[in-house]
Structures are given as structure tokens and as C-alpha cells.
Amino acid sequence: MRDYSHVSHPCDGCGFHDKSIWQPVSGAALPVLNRGFDRLPIAAGQILFKQGEENAGVYCISRGLIGLRSYQADGKSTLLRLAYPGEIIGFRSFLAAQPHHTEAQALTSSRVCLVPRHSVRQIMDRSPEVLDRLTSRCIDEIDRSHAHIIAAATRSNKDRLSELFEKLMRIHGRDSDGGRTMRLPLTRSDLADLLGIRPETLSRVLARVATDGQFQVRGREVFMHVQGKAAARNRCANTA
Asked: Which neighbouring-strand residues pair with 114?
């Protein structure tokens, strides 16, 4: 039996290695993964794949932020969700052997790792654990959609927007005096899409978020007070 112990894994230096769908790849499948593996720098605004385009493979986001958008027949679009570092995209069209149903665009300077579809098929033949991990990601996608529907029905728009700001701030924010600050990588129209509300409703929600005291929003600049939540809880406790 051939020894592949000298063959390095392309994800060894990645912070998402343990959860990567490629982590189980070993033995004869490892050279296949290495031959097809490609790291792609993506500039902000660049399209990774278009809606209706043939699938090229499975993409893993190692840095940045990718927006997944759906276009209607009249040319209007809706931002469906954000894909963060550690997530994979393009796998649904790969598994379904269909063109992409969405467009993927880098919202910030990003980097993705691509394994072409012919390599993915060969790898799955040699390493069935990869298919298990792809299946798990499909379930995660369904669970995420379900959680989004539940949140829209049970939580306030203000709370959902604050949660989104907090998540983006953790990834894209930088320390500032008294808190953290970031340039919002989304337009207000995109924010409204993610929350499932109208743009005019978003303006009112932003005003309520500002009144709450945790965030200050000026155009696309967002500042988060590090003690904002604690102060809000204290105010509630004092008025209880």
C-alpha cells in the first residue's frame, strides 16, 4: 500500500481546519485534494459566481464576507443571507448538479478556497466522510432558515438588527475609544432585505437602536459602546 504520510493537507494552517469539510481527507484522496485546491483572493464588490451560472465546485470562505443574492425576472434583487469565514457556499448547486440559484458577491476584501467539482466527486469516492460533512452543512442551512423564520415572528426588529450589528462588529470591527467601530459592509437596502422589512421601516428601527444607546450609526459608520448592553439592563432593572 502506498504511503501518503508525506503529503501535506492544504487546510493544515487554516483556523477552520477542524470543522472543514476537507478535514477527513487522507490517504489516496489527499493528492486529489491538493491538485484541485485553489486559494482565490476576492476584491470587495467582485462576483464569485452568478445566478444561473454552472457550478464550478465547492467554496470555503477563509476571510471576509460574502453576500448571497437572488435576482428576480424584473432585475430586482434580494440579499438572502451573509456567509461568514468558515462557511462553505456553492455546495447546494454541486449536490443538485444544477446551476447556481443565487449570486455570490464579496462585500469586503475576502479569500475563498475552491475545490473544483470533478475533484470533489473523486474525493467523495475515496473519502465518504466528506459527503457526511456536506450533508451536515445542508442540515445547518435548513436549521438556519428555520431559525430566521422563527426570529422574524417572535423577536423585535430592533433586537434582530442589534444582533446582526454585534456579529458584524466581532468580525469586521476594530477597537475604538469606549467601544468598537466598523464601516458597515452593507447598504441600508441590504439590511432591510436581511431583516425582511421595508427600507422605510429600517429607518425607524435604526432610530430605536440609537435610542437604546448601544449603537451609534452615521451613514455606514457604526460605533458600538462596549457597556451598552449592561447599561440598558441596569436601566431596566432600575425602572422595574
From this structure: 38, 59
pLDDT-derived band at 229 (thresholds 50, 70, 90) equals very low
CB contact at 8 A, 73 and 184: no
What are residue 78's DSSP bridge partners?
Answer: 70
Residue for cell digits 462596549?
A: 226
Q: What is the pLDDT confidence band of residue 230, given thresholds at 50, 70 and 90?
A: very low
What are the φ/ψ torsions at residue 74 (nearest 5 degrees)? -85, 5
Residue type, 34: N
pLDDT at residue 80 in the model:
95
- What local confidence, expressed as pLDDT, does residue 1 receive? 64
Cα separation, 48 vs 106, in Å, equals: 7
Using alpha carbons, list the distances in angstroms from residue 51 to 69, 102, 150, 207: 8, 5, 27, 35
* β-sheet bridge partners, residue 67: 82, 105
Residue 49 pairs with which residues in a beta bridge?
104
pLDDT at residue number 236: 42
Q: How confident is the model at residue 227 (pLDDT cuts 50, 70, 90)?
A: low
Classify residue 233 as exposed, middle or buried by CB count within 10 Å of its CB (0-12, 13-18, 19+): exposed
